[in-house]
Specification:
235 residues; alpha/beta; Rossmann fold; six-stranded mixed β-sheet; 10 strands
Length: 235
């Protein structure tokens, strides 16, 4: 579905991604792991079009999307839920949801919003509230719903559990699994390695802008580097 080939990206003179290769097959949950500063968020932003790669190629469903702008990539079928959620704080919950469907011209938007309210029943009670008045967990769910209203084939999730209470985190991961089972492919950046590896099929480990490990999640969980760096277990 998604192929990232030899991507290099810079912030000024700093090379953030150094020849990254990655593949996301249709129907999968793929995790990207790494410490802060490894390049995980940069990679998602590059796929989503908000960071322009200097070299390399990104293809999605056989189409080259390397030089497309973010709104064009959304139309191709890729949605990003950014780190920090980026909820429009002064706009209502309903307006935030409608923003997720801004590029759509079909007549199914209202029905899709209703389906999101079935997914998260509390949304219906808060449609008129400002997005900034929601709790952190509610904002994360709203951000996911907003992204789904673009009707993506692939959703990019950047640290969806960041700063949330354990019970909310568990609910977030259950939601990701349900979204995937409903047919949306997932590319997940997450520092909660145990949870990410538990729900994902494949994983990549980024270190200072390079992929240093990759493979099926179950197998990578047994890698000494994973155990020591992320799980606090010495080989």
């Amino acid at each position: 579905m998604l192929q990232v080939e030899e991507i290099e990206a810079f912030y000024g003179n700093i090379k953030a991604l150094k020849g990254v290769n990655l593949e996301v097959p249709p129907g999968a949950i793929v995790s990207i792991l790494g410490v802060n500063g490894a390049g995980k968020t940069t990679l998602l932003k590059t796929i989503a079009g908000s960071v322009r790669p200097r070299t390399g190629r990104i293809t999605f469903l056989g189409q080259d999307i390397t030089r497309l702008k973010p709104h064009q990539i959304v139309k191709q079928g890729i949605s990003l839920v950014p780190e920090g959620r980026a909820i429009l704080a002064k706009m209502t919950v309903l307006e935030n949801l409608e923003m997720g469907a801004y590029h759509r011209t079909d007549k199914e938007v209202k029905g899709d919003i209703e389906r999101e309210m079935e997914r998260f029943p509390w949304l219906k009670e808060r449609l008129g509230q400002p997005g900034g008045s929601l709790s952190g967990g509610e904002q994360q769910m709203l951000a996911i719903s907003r992204a789904l209203l673009a009707k993506p084939k692939l959703i990019l999730l950047d640290e969806p559990s960041l700063g949330l209470a354990p019970l909310v985190v568990a609910d977030i991961f259950r939601t990701i699994k349900r979204i995937n089972r409903a047919g949306t492919t997932v590319l997940l950046v997450e520092q909660n390695v145990k949870q990410a590896m538990k729900i994902s099929h494949f994983a990549y480990v980024l270190e200072t802008g390079r992929i240093i490990l990759q493979g099926e999640s179950k197998e990578l969980m047994e890698e000494p580097k994973i155990k020591e760096a992320f799980l606090g277990q010495r080989a």
